[in-house]
């Protein structure tokens, strides 16, 4: 019987682990196949407070993990297949471990960026391919960038990237965009933005120094084209990692866990959520860490009230 189990080891889960471990609650943290979350796929992080010269994503996650271990947090590797949350204590069925029982549960399983699945994409993550403009835009100062997507998020990222890039080209499979009209009007007024609509991305072209072009198919002419760029930002959305919950937690229409405003509390007392699994707006390492602190403090207070 654990006092608390944390599922997920991104900045949210590891921050929660640090706080609970310091409170002498000896939390168990379940690591999935990618310990550290999305930050382990990034290179240098320059916007996390406390690191004026920046820090590599994997190094930041490793430091946070060691900090949690220092205070007594326990880590085990496994894949949570299912949960039983209809009564306390809660039960987790974890592949490679078996059944685990806990008084409280913190869900910090994050959200996974959607990718196109085209050649050269996965090979060049961190070498010019990105899914986060606010994380990586700074590295493309004075360079040409391609943004793939037609929704509000894609156009927001394109608009943001014009602060750094010399040119931003928006690529969309259709002629029409899904983004709101006000967002489209705002971006069309930006002189740094060019449009490559009705084109299907085919391949990310890269050399020794990283990305240098995106190959696309012109859907009208049937001809292949090369869009020269040093960066390719894929902005086609995210999906939260909540399938293993089996509908036992209240989520929104897109599968993100719903928490009570101003807290990390879900619809089930004793179950808390933090990080990108419940964040549809910010999706930053620092906001994830902050929500992990909230979840740990909410969890600690809940256990105290049980006593």
From TrEMBL:
Q: Which UniProt keywords apply?
A: Disulfide bond, FAD, Flavoprotein, NADP, Oxidoreductase, Redox-active center
Task: Write down how the cofactor binds this protein.
Answer: Binds 1 FAD per subunit.
**Its GO biological process terms?**
removal of superoxide radicals
Entry similarity comment: Belongs to the class-II pyridine nucleotide-disulfide oxidoreductase family.
One GO term in the molecular function aspect is:
thioredoxin-disulfide reductase (NADPH) activity
- Which reactions is this enzyme annotated as catalysing? [thioredoxin]-dithiol + NADP(+) = [thioredoxin]-disulfide + NADPH + H(+)
Oxidoreductase as a keyword of this entry, yes or no, is: yes
Cofactors: FAD
User: Which EC class heads this enzyme's classification?
Assistant: oxidoreductase
**Do the record's keywords include Transferase?**
no
Give the EC number(s) under which this enzyme is classified.
1.8.1.9
How does this chain assemble? Homodimer.
Q: Which residues form the FAD/NAD(P)-binding domain?
A: 3-292
Gene3D superfamilies in the record? FAD/NAD(P)-binding domain
Q: Give the record's GO CC terms.
A: cytoplasm
Q: What is this protein called?
A: Thioredoxin reductase
What the entry lists under InterPro entries is as follows: FAD/NAD-bd_sf, FAD/NAD-binding_dom, Ferredoxin-NADP_redctase_2, Pyr_nucl-diS_OxRdtase_2_AS, Thioredox_Rdtase
Concerning NCBIfam families, the annotation shows:
TRX_reduct
């Amino acid at each position: 019987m654990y006092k608390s189990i944390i599922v997920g080891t991104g900045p949210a889960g590891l921050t929660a682990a640090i706080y609970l471990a310091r409170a002498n609650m000896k939390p168990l943290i379940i690591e999935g196949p990618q310990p550290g979350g999305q930050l382990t796929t990034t290179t240098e992080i320059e916007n996390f407070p406390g690191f004026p010269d920046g820090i590599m994503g994997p190094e930041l996650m490793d430091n946070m993990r060691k900090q949690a271990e220092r205070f007594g947090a326990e880590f085990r590797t496994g894949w949570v297949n299912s949960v039983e949350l209809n009564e306390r204590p809660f039960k987790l069925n974890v592949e490679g471990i078996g059944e685990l029982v806990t008084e409280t549960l913190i869900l910090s399983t994050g959200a996974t960026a959607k990718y196109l699945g085209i050649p050269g994409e996965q090979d060049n993550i961190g070498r010019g391919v990105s899914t986060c403009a606010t994380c990586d835009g700074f590295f493309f100062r004075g360079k040409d960038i391609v943004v793939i997507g037609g929704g509000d998020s894609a156009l927001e990222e394109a608009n943001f990237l014009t602060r750094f890039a010399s040119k931003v080209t928006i690529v969309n499979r259709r002629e029409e965009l899904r983004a709101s009209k006000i967002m489209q009007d705002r971006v069309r007024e930006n002189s740094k933005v060019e449009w490559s609509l009705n084109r299907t991305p085919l391949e990310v072209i890269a050399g020794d120094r990283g990305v240098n072009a995106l190959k696309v198919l012109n859907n009208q002419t049937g001809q292949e084209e090369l869009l020269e760029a040093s960066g390719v930002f894929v902005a086609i959305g995210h999906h939260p990692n909540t399938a293993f919950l089996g509908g036992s937690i209240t989520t929104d229409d897109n599968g993100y866990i719903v928490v009570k405003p101003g807290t990390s509390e879900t619809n089930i007392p004793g179950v808390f959520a933090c990080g990108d699994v419940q964040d549809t707006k910010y999706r930053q390492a620092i906001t994830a860490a902050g929500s992990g602190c909230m979840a740990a403090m909410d969890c600690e207070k809940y256990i105290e009230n049980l006593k």
